[in-house]
Amino acid sequence: MNYKTLIGLEIHAELLTNTKIFCSCKNEFGADVNTNCCPVCLGLPGSLPVLNKKVLEYAIMAGLAFNCNIARHTKMDRKNYFYPDLTKAYQISQYDIPLCENGFIQIEKEDKTTKNIRIRRIHIEEDTGKSLHDTSGDTLLDYNRSGVPLIEIVTEPDMNSPEEAYKFLEKLKEVLLFTGVSDVKMEQGSLRCDVNINVVREDGLKSNIVELKNLNSFKAAVKAMEYEIKRHIDLLESGQNTVRETRRWDDSENRTISMRSKETVQDYRYFPEPDIVNINISDEFIENVKKSLPELPDQKRERFIKEYMIPEYDAKILTSSKELSSYFEDIVKLFNEPKVVSNWIMTELLRRVNDEGITLSDLKFEKEDFADLLSAISQGKINNNAGKKVFRAMFETGKKPNEIIEQMGLVQLQDENEIKQIIISVLENNKQSIEDYKNGKQRAFGFLVGQIMKASQGKANPQIVNSMLKEIIDNM
């Protein structure tokens, strides 16, 4: 029988505010353990939380970017549960009146058609601490993360394959990066993804929904979903069903493992947070946030194609991050050949950046230097191959391109008389190749060009070489 997969996602994204959600402790990753804590984020008796206005602003910005409706009146709630890293045995979150509702993200399917994945809600809440397990079997607790502001993004079960879920996650990550509300670094825990998954048989029989946790990358999420789809189908085919539970993904064994039974809403005993007043949001506040929204990836992509006349493939790569798209536009302002700039960024620049594991802000040379190099190639001062050598030296040393060109002796030979003498010398030593070319063997011409470039130590202008060589042979 045929089966349909239903996938819904719950994504937690840490917000890039300077301070935590309910106190003035620093919101930063990598600080010494338990140094960014206070009575509020430790949940000590008598401490009172105060909502960070910037959290509200960033969450609304995310909601607007994802086409959500923004609540004018909302509140905070207590979500009660016990966990070792949750000091006060409850989490301040939102329950029945989320800040943002009824949004969507549009993805492109494999057949190039589009599909809207509905976002049920986006709400704000505080993060918990972090459990650290040492080699002796003891568990230590670091509360630096406790109280870090989160948005939880909950989708409808609109994704019907792991591939669709992957595309949704990529799009979501891209938009969050462009808005600047989160750095979405999964390796640091600032983006976390849980999956709710089940299958429906064509006769209407459903497997029970299973929640998947411990997904530390999008690749792991896809593998876990693929595994679960097969497990659900196999159980239904054998006359059994899945248990409604939470399972974790084990990368080493490539399988999901049961963690615990799935909690229900009633288990959390939600009630309004008594220490925080209800939140009233004005139209003016929302409008100001809307005005601060940057150009989003899809809009930027369309503009790049139209304004810079570059292919869709180039535009997709160049708008994959806010930093990269800004870098491209800054270079084009200095050297107005968009396709040339695009080619160099996508090949030479990104290859070296990725190999070295650095960011564009780590580059040793200035944007003006990059533009000067491209100008030197465009003006014929050096050829393209020499340009790659210069770029490598710029990347490694940070020196100016013209300084490197002079030091390496790469200035392109433009003097036609000098080039003509080199051509004549090569032709005198390769008479058979001249005959081969005249007899229709085009490869012979390419061989002669190569010999001329070799004789000039790669400095001769290739365009002059080609036209002059053809003219000389045709007149022989």
TrEMBL record:
Query: Does the record bear Nucleotide-binding in its keywords?
Result: yes
GO terms in the biological process aspect are: glutaminyl-tRNAGln biosynthesis via transamidation; translation
Tell me where in this chain the Asn/Gln amidotransferase domain is found.
Answer: 326-473
Q: Which reaction does it catalyse?
A: L-glutamyl-tRNA(Gln) + L-glutamine + ATP + H2O = L-glutaminyl-tRNA(Gln) + L-glutamate + ADP + phosphate + H(+); L-aspartyl-tRNA(Asn) + L-glutamine + ATP + H2O = L-asparaginyl-tRNA(Asn) + L-glutamate + ADP + phosphate + 2 H(+)
**Example GO molecular function:** transferase activity
What Enzyme Commission number(s) does the record list for this chain? Answer: 6.3.5.-
The record's annotation in InterPro entries points to: Asn/Gln-tRNA_amidoTrfase_suB/E, Asn/Gln-tRNA_Trfase_suB/E_cat, Asn/Gln_amidotransferase, Asn/Gln_tRNA_amidoTrase-B-like, GatB, GatB_C_1, GatB_Yqey_C_2, Gln-tRNA_amidoTrfase_suB_CS
Q: Origin, by domain of life?
A: Bacteria
UniProt keyword annotation of Transmembrane helix present: no
Which keywords does UniProt give here? ATP-binding, Ligase, Nucleotide-binding, Protein biosynthesis, Transferase
What family classification does the UniProt entry report for this protein? Belongs to the GatB/GatE family. GatB subfamily.
Query: Subunit notes for this chain?
Result: Heterotrimer of A, B and C subunits.
What the entry lists under HAMAP family is as follows: GatB
Functional description taken from the UniProt entry: Allows the formation of correctly charged Asn-tRNA(Asn) or Gln-tRNA(Gln) through the transamidation of misacylated Asp-tRNA(Asn) or Glu-tRNA(Gln) in organisms which lack either or both of asparaginyl-tRNA or glutaminyl-tRNA synthetases. The reaction takes place in the presence of glutamine and ATP through an activated phospho-Asp-tRNA(Asn) or phospho-Glu-tRNA(Gln).
Can you name this protein? Aspartyl/glutamyl-tRNA(Asn/Gln) amidotransferase subunit B
Q: Quick one: which gene encodes this? A: gatB
